[in-house]
Amino acid sequence: MRNIKLLIIGILMCNFALAQTTSKDRIIFLTPHWQGERFEDGRPKVADDILERLKEVAIEEAWGVLRNEGYHNQFEGGWELLHDDVPVVGRALTVQYMPNRPDVSDQIEKQGKSEGYIGNTNSWPIDMLQVGDVYVADGFGKIVDGTLIGDNLGNSIFAKSKTGVVFDASSRDQEGLSEIEGFNAFVRGWHPSFLTEVMLLGINSPIRIGAATVLPGDVVLGKKEGVVFIPAHLAEKVVVTSEIIRLRDLFGISRLKEGKYTPGQIDNKWTDEIEKDFSKWLNDHIDELPVPKEQIRQLLKKRTW
Fold this sequence. Notes:
Layout: H1 2-18, H2 24-30, H3 48-54, H4 59-68, E1 75-76, E2 80-81, E3 88-99, H5 102-114, H6 124-128, E4 133-147, H7 151-161, E5 164-171, H8 174-178, E6 184-187, E7 189-190, E8 198-203, E9 207-209, E10 212-214, E11 219-223, E12 226-230, H9 235-258, H10 263-267, H11 272-284, H12 293-302
Helix pairs in contact: 3-9, 4-9
Protein name: RraA family protein
Organism: Meishania litoralis
């Protein structure tokens, strides 16, 4: 009888926790196309090598691949950036905030403290960050009194993740945050106020960032133009497609400078002769091209000439 009671209590506690942190089984259910490694919390763990190569991918290239795959709601623009020239790339740790409701927020804070969380709720997700994560928060666009972090939390975030943040909300301490080398923030605005009348409702749950749907483990690609949220199972395809485009562009520019082909020949579908020339050029320049050698070898292996 005692064991049954303990089991019931455990189930109730688990159900309450789900209001804050999405279960591993639920994350796996929501990301069925990912067949690779996962974190302990269930999030897809896209390889570090893919993340590193994504830093060279253009927003337009990633957007194009996703559109071709049927993903039309993965881009959001209109950000205020801490730095224009520091890309943010990493695996999304998603957080949902909502306008405060005292009866709910009191319960969440009590439960969190009983589980060992300390400080304000906006710092709780930071404790969960790992290297390569990006703290992505739906803060319902709040700017005044919607500042999710300042420079103290920003330093903690970068120490844990080595990346940055994407907030559909605001931040404070712009000057202090800008001094964190390698850190960047995509926010809706900057404001000197403190966070108030905002409550944490979910961690690692599906969230909406503007016009985009974001799942935990999605790969974040943030650059000056905006942010693309790449489903984990498409991250490698985005990288490989971008690298092929980059190589073809380099080849085309090189041959145009040499005067070997006309702009009309390069800008249209390439003839078999140009395609063969491209393969030879890849092989001849494999040591100096800005794409991993193994990727070029794979590309050459798959070509029929």
